[in-house]
Each structure stands twice: as structure tokens, then as C-alpha cells.
Amino acid sequence: YIDTCYFGLADGTHLAIDQHPANKYDENGAIIHIPVRQRPWYRKAVETGTICFSDVMYYDLYTGKPCVTCSAPVYANGKLIGVIGIDLFLTAMEEYVEESAKSGGFICIINNQGKVIFAPDANPLFTVAFSEDDADLRQSDKTDGHYSDLDSVPWPFLCTDGCTQNHPADRIYD
After folding, report:
1. Which of 49, 102, 115, 142 has its CA 20 to 30 A from that of 38?
2. 56-110 pLDDT, tens digit each
3. Neighbours of 142 (CB within 10 A)
4. Partners of 149 in the β-ladder
5. Which residues contact residue 90 at a Cβ distance below 8 angstroms, ignoring those fewer than 6 apart?
6. What is the DSSP track for 73-91?
7. 161/171 Cα distance (integer angstroms)
8. The pTM is what?
9. Rounded to an integer, what distance in angstroms lies between the CA atom of residue 77 and that of residue 66?
């Protein structure tokens, strides 16, 4: 769901509307300064000059919740005014993945770089950690060779033990 809407002005001013106003102040009651022009969502929108999305490997600055940020530059008469952005929280997806472990198996979601972005806490194989140094599951022996990029969407498909010719996911390859 959409949680936060904000506008980072070219002069560094940061305007935000969300349901977490207390998270914007430090322990002394002072507003926490955000170097908005250094934030990845701002820089990417300015660099590309168009609407863009952050990677899923991104946590909201104020809440620490996983999200995807959609941002776009705003121009007036060819001059950059600022960048508008919204955070789309992925809490429901995270909860769904966690619930999957209760059925005896589990769902693990990885991004197009082979990094684990969601996995149940109690799973025996995969750890969620957002670092450039994390293992690329496309080259991992943990996948037992059941990894494939899909042509129709920018998501990889990963199947661990239990994949058989009768598994519904096998239809993806047909």
C-alpha cells in the first residue's frame, strides 16, 4: 500500500505526508534533517529524467519497513524543481512469505540480481541481507540447479528440493 508521499525540492527542502509524524523528530524534538538530494530515489530520478522505481532491496528511512519507491523529476520551463516520490510498503508480501513456512515448505522471493529479498525467518537455507556482497543465488549450489530467468517478467524463478515434473511451477517452462 502507499504509505508516504514526499517532494524533495532542488534546494534540499524535504516535504512529506505520511502517517508517521513522530518518526521525523529526534529525542530532543528537533526535526531530523534528511539530505534529500543524496537519497537514492532522488538521484535516480534526476539522473534518468523520468519516472523510476527503486530496487526492492530498500527500507523506508523512517519506519525501517521494506518498500519500493516510485519517483519522478518535476521540471518547470526546463528547470528541475525537485523530485516527487511515494513509498509502496511491501509489508503484506513480507507477512505472506513468513506465513508460507507454516505449511511445511516455504516461499522465498529473490530479485533479478539473485539476492534474497524475502524469506521466512525459520527457513533452513536462505538469509535476507541487503548487501552488494551477498551471494547471487543464480550461482549458488543451494538452488540445486532449479533457477531460471523468466522472459515475461523481470523476476527469476527458483525452486529448491521438492521440484518435480508434476510441480505446477514446471508449467512456466512450457
Report:
1. 115
2. 756 777 777 888 889 999 999 999 999 999 988 888 888 888 888 887 777 777 7
3. 15
4. 156
5. 56, 65, 66, 67, 68, 118
6. EEEETTEEEEEEEEEEE-H
7. 17
8. 0.67
9. 36
